[in-house]
Structures are given as structure tokens and as C-alpha cells.
Known about the structure:
Structural class: mainly beta
Number of strands: 23
Number of domains: 1
Helix content: under 10%
CATH topology: Neuraminidase
Strand content: 35-45%
Largest sheet: 5 strands, antiparallel
CATH architecture: 6 Propeller
CATH superfamily: TolB, C-terminal domain
Shape: globular
Amino acid sequence: xxxxxxxxxxxxxxxxxxxxIEANQEELKYLGQTPPKLKxxxxxxxxxxxxxESEFGSVFNKEATEFYYGVDVxxxxxxxxxxxxxxxxxxxxxxxxxxxxxxxxxxxxxDENRLYFISNKALESDDxxxxxxxxxxxxxxxxxxxxxxxAGTNINSNKNEYYMSFAKDGGMYFSSNKAAVENKQxxxxxxxxxxxxxxxxxxxxxxxxxxxxxYEADVFxxxxxxxxxxxxxxxxxxxxxxxxxSFKNEAGHWSKAKNMGPIINTEGHELCPxxxxxxxxxxxxxxxxxxxxxxxxxxxxxx
Length: 303
């Protein structure tokens, strides 16, 4: 459930250097931003997180030299990107947009040869349909072929599929309300689908340590599948939607998910989690801005 509102934007604190940059390759990663510590900070304010726009799902590639993110513009979402070219980050550009349907929540699989996202595009036309599916485009050399490909019927249904992430073996974790009771379409659950012989297999519903009668969506799985972070709307939450975390134990079972606490969660809505491939930073969306924080906050929650 994506919530769109107009936000109050903080003062610009860390401009992106788009010109000549005298820095080594490590300092140029993550758009040249000063890394956060244990207090979450808005990511690239004024450049990525902008006034009067709502930012949602975001993802870096493994080298932290490409950045993709979803932006709501007047109620319709589009996907933008920026990349490191030599010692300069390109000005953010629109990668995927349409005048009818939305595109949001971009995510790269392990081989990074596809870019997955969600859209309410109709299957056989450019019309808008009532539910969202998971789609992808394919990389061709240094560029993306912008032909949209539906992820298929093993993943998508006639209800909503939201926000995907991937284990290192290519398996997909995602959310869907395909099993929701009629007239209660916000009862999303989290599923996993094995990637085998070049195709996603029939998804499995995660157990009751993750899924409840409440809303569970926007799931991030660590590549080694040692933990999950997801958005849920529960009575013990701090706001309209909170981020929860579950760890996998030695027996291969998920622990009972727990709220990530007031450092992360607010009276507003937290969603769209992502941890960078180098294991250093935790990204998420809070009240329509993208935030990042040192990943040690995740380690502190592990029992």
C-alpha cells in the first residue's frame, strides 16, 4: 500500500558534486555523500529527495556506482537513475515513465542483467489496470532495453504484487494480496519463489513468524537469507506503517518478527527497505523521503 502525501522538506545539507571531483573511487560511491552513522539521515537531500516529490523504492548496484529509485509525481510514479561516469555522477534522469500507468520500486537481481519493478500496466496494451504486477527490463551492454516484460503467472496474479528482492541464488521474495478476503484488499502477505532452470517457481507463503492477519509487504531479504526486513501495519507499531525484522536461526526457521524501534520508525510510514551489497548501509523510505543509516543498527537487533 503506497501512501502519497505532500511533505515538508528540510534544508539542503549535502549537495551532490556533479562537476570535477578530486576523490578516490571509494569516496565517489553512493553519490559522494558523507556516510551516516547511527542516526538515520535523508539521502542526498535536494538532489534525490526533493521538495514536493515522494520518493519510494531505491537500489544501488553492487559497486555502488548506479542508483535507481521510484518517484511519485502528481499521483503517478516513475523510475529515475543516476550513475558514476568517471569521476562525475550523472544528473538524475527518468529511465521509465508513462503518461497512463505507474512504475515504481526498482530492484536489481544478483547478476544485475535485469531491472525489476512494479507497474499497473495492462498486459496487452498501454492501458491501466486495477492491480500491480512485477515486471522487468533487460540490460543490453551498457544500456537498458526498455521493453517491459511481465514476470509471469507464477509470480503475478489478478491482485497486487508489490516490491521484490532477491537471495544470492536468484530466488525472489515479494508481497501479494492474492489471498486477501474480498473487500479487505490491504491484507498483504510475503512469499518466496525459487528461481530454477531460468524460471520462477510456484511461490511459497512464509510462515506465521512473518505473516499475520495484518499487512505485510515491501520485503528485503539479505543475499544469504539470514534476515528479512519488511513493512507491516500492526497494533504495536509507532505509526501508519513500520519496518520489522526477522532473523533465520541455525535450524533454518525465521524468528518472530519484531519492530525495528523508534530510531527507524516514526508516526508516519516507513517502507521500501534495502541494504547495500557491501553490508555497510541500510536504506529505507520514511514519510516520502529516502533515508540511510549505518547497518550496525540491524546487528544490534539480532538476539
